[in-house]
Structures are given as C-alpha cells and as structure tokens.
Amino acid sequence: MPDRILKGEAMIHFDNLGKAWPDGTKALSDISLHIPRGQFCVILGPSGAGKSTLLRAVNGLMHPTQGLVRIDGTALTHATQKQLRRRIAMIHQHFNLTSRLSVAANVLSGLLPVVSTPRALTGWFRSEHRRKACGLLQRVGLAPTHLKRRAGDLSGGQQQRVGIARAFMLDPEIVLADEPVASLDPKISRDILTLIRDAAREQNTTVLCSLHQIDLAREFGDRIVGMRDGKIVFDGTPAEFTDERVSALYHGAHWEDPPKKAEPEAAGFELAHV
Amino acid sequence: MQKPIPVPAPGSQVHWHLDAPYSLKHLLIIAAILIVLILTGQRTEMDKMVMMTTEAAGKLLGVADDSQVVRGLSRVATSMWPPVFGETEEISRLPEFKRDQLPFFAHVEVQERVEQRMNSETLQLEPHSESVEVLVKPVGYVVTVFIKMIETLEIALWGTIIAVILSAPLAYFAARNYSPNQASYTAARGFISLLRSAPELIVALFLVLAYGFGPIAGVLALGLHAAGFLGKFYAEDIENADKKPQEALEAIGAGKLKTLWYGVVPQVLPQYIAYTAYILDRNLRMATVIGLVGAGGIGQELKGRFDMFQYGHVMTILIAIFIFVFILDQLSARIRNKLI
C-alpha cells in the first residue's frame, strides 16, 4: 500500500469495526481504515456491501457492535456524539431536504445545532448566517430566485446542490456523502461531485463518499476503498484500481469470467469505459 | 378470428383447485348476525317503531282512524307556530328609556291590559283594566337570537383554539419517535384516550358546576374533547412523516425539537390544517347543543325558552340554527375545496 494515501494525521480512524444486525447477518466485519485529513476517499462496491453502514458509523447514525470509530483522535461514543456531529456534515442519496420548506430555510437548517431554540423556532436567523446561506447557494450554482422556492419543486440536481449548501453551513471537517449522485444523470453527477470535491479542497475537508460508478470513483477519488459483503477487499489509489481489480470486486469468486457475460443490472453498477 | 379457449384434455391431471366462494362458515356468520339484529331490535322496540310509523302513514293517507305520532307532531306544530320575532317591554320597567332616542326599528304603543285583581272590600276577584305604554321591537327577538348565535360561533372558535394549544404538546409526547421515554408516551396516549372518551355534553355538565353557567364551560368542554382528537391525529402524522429530512437533521445533531420543527412540521402542515378545519366545523355544530346543559350559546337560550313553554321562541331559534348550519356547511365546503 502506498504511503501517499496514509500520509498525514488521521481524521477518521476505523478500528476493527464490526456490525451485526439483530438477525445475525454481518453488515460490517473487521473494518480498519485510516483516513487522513483532507482526503477524498471513495467507498466503492456492489449494493449491500455495507457502504452506507460504514458511513453512518462515522456520525453515530449506526452504532457498531464491535470496534470503534475515532474522529480526530476522539472516540465516538454516546457522550461525544453530540459534539462530534457538529463537525460532520452529510449529503444524502435522496437529498433528504424538507420538501415543503423553502430552499433558504433548508440551507439554514444546517445551522440548527448551533442556533438557539427561540431563533430556530421563529426562523429569525442572524444576518451573517443568512449572508452565509446566500453565499453558499451562489457557490453551488443556484440563482437568487431559488431562495424562496419550495425545495421539493426543484429538479434532482438542484436539490442536491441545496443539500451540499446545507452540508457546508457549519464549515464541516468531515463530509459524508452517501451515494450523492445515485439518482442523477451522468452529466449532473459529474458537476455535483466536482462541487463537493472543490468545496472540500477549499477548506481542507475530509470527504468519505460512497459511489457505485467506477468511472466517477476513478476520476474523483484520491483513494478508492472497495467493499464486498461488509469487508474491505481493495484499498489503493485510482491508478492501482485496474480492470482486474474491478471485476474481482464485483464478481468475486467468478472474477475470471469475462465482464461481458455478467449482468450489470444485477450487480448494480455501470461498466467502466476506461 | 376468435380462437376457442383451450380446455385441459380429458383425463389430464389439474393440480390447482379453486374453492367455492361460500361455505358453512359464511352461513353461520350470517345466522349469528341475524340473531344479534333480532335481539337488539326487540330491545330497542324497532317492531313498535315500524307499527307506529305505518299507522301514521295510514292516518295521513286517510286509511287509519287515529295515530299517536300524528297527534303528537301536530300538537308540537300548533304550539310552535308562529315563530316569535318581536319583543315588547313595559316602558315603566326600563330605567334607561329615552323617548327621543328609540332603538332601531322600535316604536311605542299603548296597550290595554286586563288583570284579575282582588277587591279588598268584597274579597272577590274582579277584572281590572289598565293601559300601559310598551316599547315594541318588531325584530327584537331575532336580534337577541343573532347575538346568541355570534356567541355560539365564538365558543366554537375558542374551543378550537384551546384544542390546538393543548394538543400540540400532547402530540409531541404521544408520538413514539419523539416522546422522551416510554412513561411519557404512555401517559400522553392515556390522557388523549381519556379526553376522547368523554363526550362534550357530559364534560360540559360537570364544567358548569365548576365554572358556573356561561360560555367558559362550553369553550373548555369543546376544547378538551377536541384536544383528544387533534392530539391523536397530530401524533400519528408525526410518526408517519417522511423520515429522510429528519435523518438529515439528526445526522448533524440538531436536537429533537428543532428536528421536529424543521423536518416534520412543514411536511404535515396541510394535514394539520385539514384536521383543525374539521374540528372547527364539528365544534360549530356542538356549540349549538352544548348550551342545553347551561354552557352558553344558543342552546342555553333554547333550553330557557323550552322550559318556560315559549314554543314560538323555540321555533325562531330552531330556524336560526338551521340557517346557520346550512350557511356554515356551504362555507366550509367552499374553503375545503380551496385548501385541497
């Protein structure tokens, strides 16, 4: 494993992480990862590989049954979770905006952990906060006319832009992007990922992004982590993620099968054209 | 060209089978329902109802000689007709009467009044005639009824406001995913059931004892009962709301109240408004009845006139209630069409 991807202080550290669901199925087993500050790390793998579960372990939406997660040296526990969550933003596959609320209110809701309850309930946010929301919406490429529109009325790509603006409201140190482009078309997917990558670079933000498009993973990741059946089966730079590695990741035991015979729908990925 | 439906060749095995749609079980269920209907029908005198109604129909058609129902109804009709619209008051009993400032539409009349008086010498009752000046207000009672109707509206409105104010915190504690713990959830659900199970009229009866006659008891009775309804509906809406925005806010550690306010309330608001409009509609109807036990509004006026055998006044009130409910029905239907 090259040093390049391990260099620097660990922002996220998975220490022998495991998760078993109540019915006994193992979602994650023996995950040990060390993600340095400022890295854009892509988690790649077929559906059901545990990508989302791994991401949700970082902000405590999922509690592991084994091992632990350290954020910037602090172990994530029930006691530290509330403080740590403020430093971790999340971008969701289905955008997870409040669709009947305005775009502006959705972006401002990213500030809720630090805004006083009376301010939150009345929606009377400080002027510097409102200015920041406007700045971020401008940064993600929306127009002033979008501010008062209902979030649910926007197109998918625009909604994800709002989601990104919301995520960056608290200047996060970590951004978790859970299949941020899974429901968007290829052109918009590229725009959205560029936006996340550039915004993260500007602030030296660590990004943990799950994807299922191999070409996008190669293009945007500083590092690619391949997962299958809750285990890490590949960890390296995009250059090391060769076509053989791809078929090993997706076809497992049948990796020697030519990819043409495989059913892309069943495996849930697009074939890479590299 | 229609092709014949292929039939399994004779002798070929069919492994599927389809049961007949009815069985003995269904017959037994129908028999049980019939027995229950016959027993309960006897206890509620449904047979007698059919007999009496047939008799009344016969009387109206001139076939039957007599009908208790028709007699009763005609007695009610004759005593209630005509409705009373006006009011007369003796001027000598009006302390603040000003002859040059008559109320609207009113005029002064001199009426002869004949009274039986005891003659102190003969100790006999003698007719004694006296002329009194009276103030005649031709639509005076209509105005009184109108004012009472407005009071009824106000009771309904405030009953609804109190219900909304009470049910909002109740719903928070009665929503499984927001209630702080199991105890608060059970307590809130229990309280909601209690509120819902107590009918307004009975609650009003007790509140009249506590707060005295008048609208306070009416407002509280309507408010408490409706709070039970709204609390349950609001709580269920909170539980069934889209989880995605809530998860996004939970992920950054926004806290329960703020998550509810930004992730749930905007989504369920149209439903909340629809429920609240329904409760307002219901309260408007109930407010006309609730005065029967002394809890203010038009019902209290109705009860008073009924007890004093002033059936003409009762008729006026009934006409007013009919017009009022009719107009409200039209209005609420129109508003609902606009909202949905």
- The SSE string of chain A, one letter per element, is EEEHEEHEHHHHEHEHEEHH
Largest interface: A-B, 32 and 21 residues
Shape field of chain B: extended
In total, how many beta strands of chain B? 3
* Helix fraction bin of chain A: 25-40%
Strand content of chain B: 5-15%
- In the predicted model, the low-confidence regions of chain B spanning at least 5 consecutive residues are none
Indicate the multimeric state: heterodimer
Shape of chain A: globular
How confident is the prediction overall: mean pLDDT of chain A?
A: 87
The radius of gyration of chain B is: 32 Å
Query: Helical region count of chain A?
Result: 10
Strands of chain A, total number:
10
Low-pLDDT runs of 5+ residues of chain A are: 253-274
**Separation of the first and last Cα atoms of chain B:** 50 Å
Fraction of helical residues of chain B: 55-70%
As a percent range, the share of strand residues of chain A is: 15-25%
Spatial sequence of strands, sheet with the most strands of chain B: 1-3-2
- Average pLDDT taken over every residue of chain B: 89
Q: Write out the strand line-up for the largest beta sheet of chain A, numbering strands in chain order.
A: 6-7-8-3-9-10
Listing every helix as H and every strand as E from the N terminus to the C terminus, the arrangement of chain B reads HHHEEEHHHHHHHH
